[in-house]
Amino acid sequence: MAHSVTDHQSPLPVSEATVLAPSGQAQDLSSRWTAVDSLLCGAFAGAVAKTVIAPLDRTKIIFQVSSNRFSAKEAFRFICCSYMKGGLLSLWRGNSATMIRVMPYAAIQFTSHDQYKRLLGGYYGYQGQALPPFTRFLAGSLAGTTAVMFTYPLDMVRARMAVTAREMYSNIMHVFMRISQEEGIRTLYRGFTPTIMGVIPYAGITFYTFETLKKIHAEKTKRPQPHPHERLAFGACAGLIGQSASYPLDVVRRRMQTAGVTGSAYVTVLGTMRAIVTQEGVIRGLYKGLSMNWLKGPIAVGISLSTFDITNDLLLKMHQIGFSAH
């Protein structure tokens, strides 16, 4: 999931572009920055972050969709067994589907976040200024919801590939075809409701926390941009808080997505949640794998947010150099 010193700076590229460009060229540079630039930055940031933590992410999903008790020892054992049986690349099984999903997801999320901030800022009279807390949260929630709506079937495919052997699903298209033929097209959207319910607090809290920390940092240090390691730390804090708040719905989503291959009958959000609590308990069921998420989540979000900011800055400087050459 991915996603600045003040709210009118990165990831609001037009405003930052105005700062970077000479005064006579500020308007031209602002117009040169397009949604394509945001899409590219977001796609790259999401791809880098998810590739780094792919083995941990797959391990978490395996435990989320099973009734086996999670522990760090068991997780480590699973990773070792996967390596011994299938080699190093087996730890990245399903990562191709992850890339196909996360690149458009992150691109749409970051780009729509820019647009929602501008729209909400204009609507509430904060255009070009730092947005108030609730509006900051709302922009993040809307961005996450928009990204999920456009990319959800890819998330379903990725989950199926992560929990099955290569013999069952050979590639992404094979997953789509088998699900459509054997379970119906509607199955591609199984788990959509808990995903939306979870992404609203997750994306909202993540973006809100990241931008708030950068805003506080700017006020304390008087520096317009934090250093890369500071951005990474801010993103890690944002991811830790956001994912912890929405984790039970993530477990419910994975159970519903993989019901067709695990033999479980998870149909509704409440029914799935009730079954998990009854069979496994609240902590061991709904929060299964949370400690793994505390390890991989902050790393992924930190890398994603800081990579977006850094690539955003680089593109803006390239635009500025282009204007200087003219």
TrEMBL record:
<dbReference type="GO" id="GO:0055085">
    <property type="term" value="P:transmembrane transport"/>
</dbReference>
<feature type="repeat" description="Solcar">
    <location>
        <begin position="226"/>
        <end position="314"/>
    </location>
</feature>
<feature type="repeat" description="Solcar">
    <location>
        <begin position="33"/>
        <end position="119"/>
    </location>
</feature>
<protein>
    <submittedName>
        <fullName>Mitochondrial coenzyme A transporter SLC25A42-like</fullName>
    </submittedName>
</protein>
<dbReference type="InterPro" id="IPR018108">
    <property type="entry name" value="MCP_transmembrane"/>
</dbReference>
<dbReference type="InterPro" id="IPR023395">
    <property type="entry name" value="MCP_dom_sf"/>
</dbReference>
<dbReference type="Pfam" id="PF00153">
    <property type="entry name" value="Mito_carr"/>
</dbReference>
<comment type="similarity">
    <text>Belongs to the mitochondrial carrier (TC 2.A.29) family.</text>
</comment>
<keyword id="KW-0677">Repeat</keyword>
<dbReference type="GO" id="GO:0016020">
    <property type="term" value="C:membrane"/>
</dbReference>
<keyword id="KW-0812">Transmembrane</keyword>
<dbReference type="InterPro" id="IPR002067">
    <property type="entry name" value="MCP"/>
</dbReference>
<keyword id="KW-0813">Transport</keyword>
<keyword id="KW-0472">Membrane</keyword>
<feature type="repeat" description="Solcar">
    <location>
        <begin position="131"/>
        <end position="216"/>
    </location>
</feature>
